[in-house]
Amino acid sequence: MTNTRILVVEDEIAIRDMLVFNLGRAGYEVFPVGSGNEARSSIADKHPDVVLMDWMLPDVSGLELTRQLKRDPDTREIPIIMLTARVQEDDRVAGLEGGADDYVTKPFSARELLARIKAVMRRGSALENEAIIVGNLKMDTGSHIVTADDEEIHLGPTEYKLLNFFMRHQDRVYSRGQLLDRVWGGTVYVEERTVDVHIRRLRKALTPYGCDMLIQTVRGAGYRFSLRGE
Ligand code: CA
Known about the structure:
The chain is of the alpha/beta class. The chain has helices at residues 13-25, 36-46, 62-71, 89-97, 110-128, 157-168, 176-184, 193-206; strands spanning 5-9, 29-33, 50-54, 80-84, 102-105, 131-134, 137-140, 145-148, 151-153, 173-174, 215-218, 222-225. It folds into 2 domains: 5-128, Response regulator (Rossmann fold), CATH 3.40.50; 131-225, Orthogonal Bundle (Arc Repressor Mutant, subunit A), CATH 1.10.10. The strands form 3 sheets. Strands 2-1-3-4-5 form a 5-stranded parallel sheet, sandwiched between helices. The chain is elongated, with a radius of gyration of 20 Å. 27% of the residues are buried.
């Protein structure tokens, strides 16, 4: 498994450095940025597991950026902890209504922040413990059991991860490179052809249930998972 990745969005260098130091020491992989724009590209690029978001940023407010991330189906599941010096109750409410998962008021201790991070991640994994249903396919993400018409389908670990990703991201085309990044993780080096091998295996496992056509090849672009026809 890859490390838990934390994106730190904070324009104050002293606080950012403190966070990078403490989170790194706690074993997290940390990506520090200083503006909303950098945050957007870093999220697309690094797929962080948690975002620490400062309220006041030079280009956009952390609150507005949080709203945007929570509206986007690609990023809405990433837990966001807002960091702010504001202490008024109204701001706290605005932060949570904007979609932030938690709220830490500056100055905070590293210990408190680490506890908050663990808490939002636990909540996240409890949420992931659910059944995803697409057509006659059902995936129980707690037990990792996949069924079609209540019959269990046996999948290898990579095929399971691939199907899990597809079921959560329907109707969109992903290139082989994007699938490698999102399913295999950006840190391992795998040839793009490997994606085709696992797609073939997955289709084969789904064929007896008529679900292989859910995985569509989009010529020159990649693959799409969709209930709609090609
Ligand atoms: Ca700031």
